């Protein structure tokens, strides 16, 4: 198996687990899923988790392009990597939350904190800002011990 394929596969798996745990944990008390049956709810959770993995892969590929290497994150991050990751996370979270709200895929509970001056939840922004870099860190650790 090539190093690039191994890194991408490992990264995708790590992100799938991280975002799956996050989605199932946060969804219950921060989102309103009224009117959805069990199957509908599970499908939405799976779609959200897989969507998060594709968002993570987008960041992976963007940073691989910027750094001219698929294994860039095995080294120390540079300032540009942090800036790109932070901006990408925020923009992706805002876009996908706004899109989902507009389509009526979900609503927020009253307990959901919003980004000041917007109708967008703060939690998904934090989710991507934390879990995307965490996925790189965990992938690096796993890759180094295997």
From TrEMBL:
Keywords noted in UniProt: Membrane, Transmembrane, Transmembrane helix
Spans traversing the lipid bilayer: 7-31, 43-70, 82-102, 114-138
Entry protein name: ABC-transporter type IV
Species of the source: Halanaerobium congolense
């Amino acid at each position: 198996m090539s190093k690039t394929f191994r890194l991408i596969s490992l990264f995708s798996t790590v992100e799938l687990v991280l975002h799956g745990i996050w989605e199932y944990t946060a969804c219950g008390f921060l989102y309103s899923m009224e009117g959805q049956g069990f199957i509908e709810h599970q499908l939405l959770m799976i779609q959200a988790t897989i969507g998060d993995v594709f968002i993570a892969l987008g960041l992976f590929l963007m940073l691989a392009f910027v750094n001219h290497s698929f294994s860039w994150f095995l080294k120390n991050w540079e300032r540009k990597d942090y800036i790109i990751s932070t901006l990408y996370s925020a923009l992706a979270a805002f876009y996908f939350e706004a899109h989902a709200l507009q389509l009526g895929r979900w609503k927020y509970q009253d307990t959901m904190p919003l980004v000041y001056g917007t109708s967008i939840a703060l939690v998904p922004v934090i989710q991507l800002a934390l879990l995307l870099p965490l996925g790189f860190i965990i992938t690096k650790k796993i890759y180094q011990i295997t």
